[in-house]
From TrEMBL:
Record-given protein name: Coesterase
Domain Carboxylesterase type B per the UniProt entry, residue ranges: 6-72
Species of the source: uncultured Bacillus sp
Phylogenetic classification of the source organism: Bacteria, Bacillati, Bacillota, Bacilli, Bacillales
Domain of life: Bacteria
Pfam families per UniProt: COesterase
Amino acid sequence: MARAAGPDPWTGVRDATAFGGRCAQPATSFDGLVDNEDCLNLNVFTPARTATAGLPVIVWLHGGSYAFGDGNVDAGT
């Protein structure tokens, strides 16, 4: 197994308005979603911007065991 390649650099603002791919799963659902090897994503949800006050942070790990669903299921709701 080869060592993972580093990320490609970018300049400017990174477009993070769409969810990343989900990890490969058994073919048990027919939801039309495509599995993707590039599936280690971090979803960050924030409320509308307020004053300079700090905001709480919640870390939620999807518990699907690479067998069911993905981190995009709840979409921050």
